[in-house]
From TrEMBL:
Matches recorded under InterPro entries: ConA-like_dom_sf (IPR013320), EGF (IPR000742), FA58C (IPR000421), Fibrinogen-like_C (IPR036056), Fibrinogen_a/b/g_C_dom (IPR002181), Galactose-bd-like_sf (IPR008979), Laminin_G (IPR001791), Neurexin-related_CASP (IPR050372)
Cysteines paired by S-S bonds: C861-C888
Name used for this protein in its record: Contactin associated protein like 3
Chain segments annotated as transmembrane: 1146-1171
């Protein structure tokens, strides 16, 4: 049947067809197939000889003609494509056959130039089944018991279908040995697997929930249930979703108790319903062999324009009150449930949800006269009953009457229905608009004055009016069952969408799919990080959870360090507990994490050490070993070799090298001597790592002593991170098997190129495809088609992408959105279609660096390509593919900026290395300060070498150690921390807590004095001083630079030394000096790191420390930087230019400091005039320095005999 016209024909071959009198979305065509049928396909055609056809429609199915269920493709898409003309036939095969007696087709869209017109044909076959009804009473059940002596099988399977309108009840119960029992119970519409232990056989303990599956199982539709037992675990399946559960014992089906219908109940292929029919003695039960189900008509409010308008109380009602009841279910926290006007002018009653609580408000003239609140968490998708009653001056609302929730009041005015009631929304044409959110959900069992509302009459437009409703069905969908949130993300939902909360999961994105962590320590280093603890996710978006490791980046290789529970040396003495000592090592990461981390590393090692005295280790290669260890995946395999030897050799490192203490043995400890000796070395065979346990066997003899140590697991290198291929032609490409990312897919890689366009990746299907390409020199495009039309996501870069630098691309497509991220730019996203998600169906090969048409290929490098967390081995495929080369050199263009403080980037095959030879710093990125603590008697002297000495010493030593003596200027910098004043720092002295610089360019001239305006520098904080001078003449440097001068270090020719400086130098210096540099040399670094090969003389105690780090001082103290620069004109003329930046350091000492400053300043001025200023430099007519010269002072270290001045001795004291 249909409304309002019956079909003319149900066959495609006939003339005519179905066309209702009115073409709107409230029409439908219903087909009664006479019996339950397994429907596999439907086909549609337009009305014969007309312009009437459908372009899209919905399909509904039902067993009873009520409680319809919408059929959805791929669990989400509800609409079906229709016709494009009146003659062609469009057939659609159902992905999952539908079993029903009634079929209803609802038109959505039709030819705009015609009307609704249809010829319909269905395909399928009769469906037979055995059905029983259970009324929920204790006598209504099925009990099956195994016959005595029945042999247990290794696999048991129970399968059935069930339908119910109740959201709770026991469905299946199975009893095992020892008082254990399993039961499957409905609780709030979900199926719970519960384990109980019954010790007394009378009272059972609190059940333990093993699993929870399904949702909304009380929708009065058939659901499939299967329980499969395999030894000690169960596979529990509800509809299409399966969960594996461990169980402690074997079980048999014992009894069931359920209110509803069961269909095709099978136990190991035995049809239990058939056995009951034939009165088999193994099965007993009091059941009805048909499905008796109540008729309950629901109505769905799907969208903003949905409402149901019903007339108020009947004329026969003389009570003058209100009595309204209904049930609802929804996922939304807010929405209008019911509203009506009061007889009093302007009074309105609003019953609505707010923050998942039921609220009632009565408004009049814009203000609330009364407000009631009841219930909580009413957006859980369960049916909730609501009753609104007003009688004899008492107003009450009740939520879930059985649970006792409600509120009441006694208004001073009558509450009655004026004329109309509105459910779920309000007609916008009415005078009073809805101030609340619209209701999206289902309602049923509507009553007015205790009379049921016939919703079928509403559907047939014989009662009330409505808009955008789905009557005789509840279209609620649980989008969180199963959850689309991955990696433990928490799912929440509304009526139209779901949301994933990814906090604390370690993943991000709309479905918590992409890891927020890098996959290795190597990747963290190339993000500019330094040593520390990091979470690494070894498989990216895969199922393995992130793990916390230590990344050691202080060496040339980046080491990942994984600790275990006993990395310290452990001493053993003879024990009476047994002949062997066994120890197990528990690692800080899980087994799967360890295995993948080891496999993707280039090298792994673990120290294994044994110190012994009269405790033998491995005996001989021919004999049985006294000790062994287990290593490798899982529990590990027995290994009989020791650190430093080869697997299977039953030797130690000394046996391999031939230097054991006893040549007759292959381990030092096997000599069995009274003296302490040791066998130690590194285990480097990755297949044997990590060390799982250790068994030591020769420790029980008197006098035996031993100590063992198993170090942490250390790995370096990341084979996935550097796996790369170079494409030198547009027609070259690599191909891999088809990419499978039906509902969730992520792709990430790095590229560098000099081309302005090219396709990175492409995979095709019949209609579907996925592609990532460089569309222009500044734009990357991620495009795909999953059958509903192509979709593109674009990211525009503000800098060119064809700059031959590495750029990172991350693309993701899931059921909620598609996203594309380029480098650190904000991600571009496109939401998934509103009508749901489609599966991505691809069937061609996956092309990398090109396309199937061999056009628009990519020229350049692609590196670290990962699809859903799995790295594709580009190098292996490139070795056998013409036009593609494995690997890709040239990383300094991208990562060279990490080398700081004049560090030089050096290319490596996999990565780069920072050469800190020209830097005063050290460390992996040349950013670790080189600092030393000085005592009053400590000094370091650096001696400049003549050119002929430099040629003899031109070895591989860093240039920060050796330097030429020919200078055109000085660029000096250092950091210091001290509480002493005065003190000498390279002609920079702290006098009266102020910074002072003295220049002495010639022995015949008085020292030039520059004073900084900064005060309080001897305050224990870290200060940085920079001195720059540029001259047109060439100076020759002799003797030494002193890093803190005391009088013992002063040169013999001290007559030319400024007397003030000599006096202050004799005081010494106590404090910290850090990162000292003079032009291209680093004297302090040379003294600390290369004291034996550098031209330095160290006097007194000198120890490296971190005192130059700003973190080593008061954490609240700021780091202060001072700049003193000098740009002189012609030689000997003009005063230095001073640019002292005053710091914000606090004044210390107040009035005392001012008094001391005045006194000592007067003495210093007097001393200034006591010394004559001697002009011994020859004036040279040279052009002055241009003011636009480089501020970096590019000094010329080559000897210039034409411009050289007299080689007067020149000393700098730091």
């Amino acid at each position: 049947t249909s409304s309002p016209a019956a079909p003319s024909s149900q066959n495609l071959t006939g003339a005519g067809g179905w066309s209702p009198l009115t073409s709107d979305r409230y029409q439908w065509l219903e087909v009664d197939l006479g019996e339950r049928t397994k429907i596999t396909a439907v086909a549609t055609q337009g009305r014969y000889g007309s312009s009437d056809w459908l372009t899209s429609y919905l399909l509904m199915f039902s067993d009873t003609g009520h409680n319809w269920k919408q059929y959805r493709q791929e669990d989400s898409i509800g609409s079906f494509p229709g016709n494009s003309n009146a003659d062609s036939v469009v057939q659609y095969k159902l992905q999952q056959p539908a079993v029903a007696r009634f079929l209803r087709l609802i038109p959505l869209d039709w030819n705009p130039s015609g009307r609704i017109g249809l010829r319909l044909e269905t395909y399928g076959c009769p469906y037979t089944s055995d059905v029983v009804s259970l009324d929920g009473s204790s006598s209504s059940s099925l009990v099956y018991r195994l016959s005595p002596g029945t042999r247990r099988t290794p696999r048991d399977v129970v399968s059935l279908k069930f339908k119910t309108v109740r959201n709770s009840g026991s469905l299946l119960h199975a009893e095992g040995d020892g008082g254990l029992s399993l039961s499957l119970e409905l609780e709030r519409g979900k199926l719970q697997l519960l384990l109980r232990r019954d010790d007394t056989r009378c009272s059972s303990s609190e059940p333990r929930r093993l699993a929870s599956l399904g949702s909304l199982l009380d929708d009065q539709h058939w659901h499939h249930l299967a329980v499969e037992r395999r030894s000690s675990h169960l596979n529990l399946t509800v509809d299409k979703h399966t969960e594996r559960v461990q169980i402690p014992a074997e079980f048999i089906v014992s009894k069931g108790n359920f209110r509803g219908c069961l269909e095709n109940l099978l136990y190991n292929s035995l049809n239990l319903i058939q056995l009951v029919k034939h009165k088999d003695h193994q099965v007993k039960g009091n059941v009805t062999f048909s499905c008796v189900e109540p008729v309950s008509v629901a109505v769905t409010f799907p969208g903003p324009q949905s409402f149901l308008q019903l007339p108020g109380a009947s004329a026969s009602s003389s009570s003058g009150g209100v009595s309204v009841g209904f049930q609802f279910r929804t996922w939304n926290k807010a929405g209008l449930l019911l509203t009506f006007g009061l007889p009093q002018e302007g009074g309105v009653v609003w019953l609505y949800l707010n923050e998942a609580r039921l609220r009632l408000q009565i408004h009049k003239a814009g203000r609330a006269l009364l407000e009631l609140t009841a219930g909580s968490a009413l957006n859980d998708g369960q049916w909730h009953s609501v009753e609104l009653n007003s009688r004899r001056g008492r107003l009450s609302i009740t939520v879930d009457k059985e649970e006792g929730g409600g509120a009441h009041a006694s208004p001073t005015f009558p509450v009655a229905i004026q004329s109309q009631l509105f459910f779920g929304g309000k007609n916008d044409g009415q005078e009073c608009r809805n101030p609340f959110n619209v209701f999206q959900g289902c309602m049923r069992l509507l009553t007015l004055d205790n009379q049921d509302v016939d919703l079928i009459m509403v559907q047939q437009k014989e009662l009330g009016t409505f808009s955008n409703l789905q009557i005789d069905m509840c279209g609620i969908i649980d989008r969180c069952s199963p959850s689309r949130c991955e990696h433990g993300g928490r799912c929440s939902q509304s009526w139209i969408a779901f949301h994933c909360n990814c906090s604390d999961s370690g993943y991000s994105g709309a479905t918590c799919h992409s890891s927020v962590y890098e996959q290795s320590c190597e990747a963290y280093k190339h993000n500019g990080n330094t040593s520390g603890h990091f979470y690494i996710d070894v498989d990216g978006s895969g199922p393995i959870r992130p793990q916390l490791v230590y990344c050691n980046m202080t060496e040339e290789n980046t080491w990942m360090v994984i600790q275990h529970n006993n990395t310290e040396a452990t001493r053993l003495r003879p024990s009476s507990l047994g002949n062997q000592h066994s120890v197990h090592f528990d690692y800080a990461t899980e087994e799967e994490q360890l295995s993948v981390a080891i496999s993707q590393s280039e090298h792994c090692e673990q120290e294994l050490s044994y110190q012994c005295r009269r405790s033998r280790l491995l005996n001989t290669p021919e004999g049985s070993p006294f000790s062994w260890w287990l290593g490798g995946p899982g529990a590990g395999r027995v290994q009989t070799y020791w650190g430093g030897a080869q697997p299977g050799s039953q030797q130690c490192a000394c046996g391999l090298q031939g230097d054991c203490v006893d040549p007759q043995h292959y381990c030092n400890c096997d000599a069995d001597r009274m003296e302490w000796t040791e066998d130690s070395g590194l285990l480097t065979h990755k297949e044997s790592l990590p060390v799982r346990s250790l068994v030591l066997g020769d420790i029980q003899r008197p006098g035996s002593e031993a100590a063992y140590r198993v170090g942490p697991l250390r790995c370096h290198g990341d084979k996935n991170f550097w796996n790369a291929a170079f494409f030198d032609k547009e027609t070259s490409y690599l191909h891999f098997p088809t990419f499978h990312g039906e509902l969730s897919a992520d792709i990430s890689f790095l590229f560098k190129t000099t081309a302005s366009s090219g396709v990175f990746l492409e995979n095709l299907g019949i209609k579907d495809f996925i592609r990532i390409e460089l569309s222009s020199s500044t734009q990357v495009v991620f495009s795909f088609d999953v059958g509903n039309g192509p979709l593109e996501v674009r990211v525009e870069s503000s800098v060119p992408l064809d700059d031959n630098r590495w750029h990172r691309v991350r693309a993701e497509r899931n059921v909620k959105e598609a996203s594309l991220r380029l480098d650190d730019l904000p991600a571009a996203t496109q939401e998934a279609p509103a009508d749901g998600h489609f599966h991505l169906q691809l069937n061609s090969q996956l092309f990398i660096g090109g396309t199937a048409s061999r056009q628009k290929g990519f020229r350049g490098c692609i590196r670290s390509l990962q699809l859903n967390g799995v790295t594709l081995d580009l190098e292996e495929r490139a070795r056998i593919t013409p036009g593609v080369r494995p690997g890709c050199p040239g990383h300094c263009s991208s990562y060279g900026s990490f080398c700081q403080n004049r560090g030089r980037c050096v290319e490596r095959v996999n990565g780069f290395h920072c050469d800190c030879g020209l830097s005063a710093y050290t460390g992996v990125f040349c950013n670790t300060e080189v600092s030393a603590s000085f005592k009053s008697g400590t000094s370091v002297s650096y001696t400049f070498k003549e050119p002929y000495e430099l040629s003899r010493n031109s070895s591989a030593l860093p240039s920060s150690i050796y330097s030429d003596t020919t200078l055109r200027g000085e660029n000096v910098s250092l950091s210091f921390r001290t509480s002493q004043s005065p003190a000498v720092l390279f002609y920079c002295q702290l006098v009266l807590q102020r910074l002072e610089v003295r220049y002495k360019l010639d022995g015949g001239r008085d020292a030039e004095v520059l004073r900084s305006r900064a005060r309080s520098l001897a305050n224990g904080q870290l200060h940085t001083v920079t001195i720059r001078r540029l001259s047109d003449s060439v100076q020759r440097m002799k003797n030494c630079i002193h890093l803190l001068t005391v009088h013992e270090c002063l040169p013999a020719a001290s007559d030319d030394l400024d007397p003030d400086l000599a006096r202050l130098g004799s005081l010494g210096f106590t404090g910290c000096l850090s990162v000292v540099s003079f032009n291209s040399i680093s004297p302090l670094k040379a003294a600390l790191l290369h004291p034996d090969t550098s031209p330095v003389i160290i006097t007194g105690p000198l120890a490296r420390s971190n005192c130059g780090s700003s973190a080593s001082a008061n954490p609240y103290a700021a780091e202060n930087t001072h700049h003193l620069s000098d740009r002189s004109g012609s030689v000997g003329s003009g005063q230095p230019l001073v640019n002292a930046i005053r710091t914000d350091s606090a004044l210390i000492g107040g009035l005392i400091a001012v008094v001391i400053f005045v006194v000592v300043t007067g003495l210093a001025i007097t001393a200034r005039f006591l010394y004559r200023r001697k002009e011994t430099y020859r004036n040279q007519e040279v052009k002055g320095v241009n003011q636009d010269d480089s501020p970096d002072f590019p000094f010329n270290n080559q000897a210039d005999p034409q411009n050289a001045s007299s080689e007067n001795p020149k000393e700098y004291f730091i």
